Fold this protein.
Amino acid sequence: MADKAQLQEAIKTQGEVVRKLKSEKASKEQIDEEVAKLLQLKAQLGGDEGKHVFVLKTAKGTRDYNPKQMAIREKVFNIIISCFKRHGAETIDTPVFELKETLTGKYGEDSKLIYDLKDQGGELLSLRYDLTVPFARYLAMNKITNIKRYHIAKVYRRDNPAMTRGRYREFYQCDFDIAGQYDAMIPDAECLKIVYEILNELDLGDFHIKVNDRRILDGMFAVCGVPGEKFRTICSTVDKLDKMAWEDVKKEMVNEKAPAEQNGADEAGVSVGSVAGGGRYDGLVGMFDPKGRKVPCVGVSIGIERIFSIMEQKAETSSEKVRTTETQVLVASAQKNLLEERLKLTSELWNAGIKVEVLYKKNPKLLSQLQHCEETGIPLVAILGEQELKDGVVKLRNVASREEVRLIVSQIVYNLSCILTKHFD
């Protein structure tokens, strides 16, 4: 390990690198990467008492989500799950890692993006790259020939992240698939309908659903002079049109993958990223089945991270406040020494399935309790008072309008449930 003087000099140099990048307004990802290096150097130096200094950052290509962001994500997930269920899908789950041999060779050149795990117990494992291959393995292993399923889970790719555009190394996929032998194009049409319903309900703005047949694309490659053995590798470059400029895609196709063998036309690149994709994979299950039995499959995957990036930007520019809890009522008190009564009423409402909070303070001021409701968006507050308790009633206040009604304590669950039903309908 370098001595203290060398570390201090390295820290000084790295600090200058960070300051230069900030002055040049470099990308956030580049700055974060150099800041991480600076923090690692400082960690090696340690504190005055030799205490280990942790580098407090998320791993490259990952991120934390705060309560506001999670509220937006949950809204998106609920819309997607509701659509999947409306179409009669059931859900499954598979392990976050698979046997390495299950994933190897299924993704073409993208196989280099698979995260391999160290051998921890006699098995060579890899983190799942998507949810499709695990689904195909699940069908073959359990001899399932017909199923309509959805699966929402994290997947992992050892990619160069572009987090500002919703590309990460750890991210969710939301998949809907129909497996089974059915009359042509009926399941395919339902997949398109699902994409339309979800994007329409999310209200992302105008969108186009593009339908492609790989056989047509292969025909275009053949006309352009691409050798048959290079069709698949060229396809993986075409798929990058929503991530890269046309000139970069053209360069990769012509110069790197099919040099001097194709005469592609110059066309404008795609500038807007895709938020969903899908297609058929009729032969995948047969690759895993010992007897090679095929199960026709078609599916669609919703790009939750890109959708979330759009929704997050919309929330930032909107004046509408995002609620991070679903609390319906705060049980409050107007005088001191009513903690027991507050907790008793809170418990009764919890038992009735009503979403309730109480401040963790023995004698909170009424104003503080009302301010908590305004800050967090709690719409109603049930106020206990000495006189009200003697009369067997509770005051229920609408936080926004400040209107109050008196509810009989013995009937509060029924009456409050009726008010909440009316309020939230």
Notes: The chain has 15 helices and 13 strands. The chain has four domains: 4-50, 67-204+272-317, 212-262, 329-423.
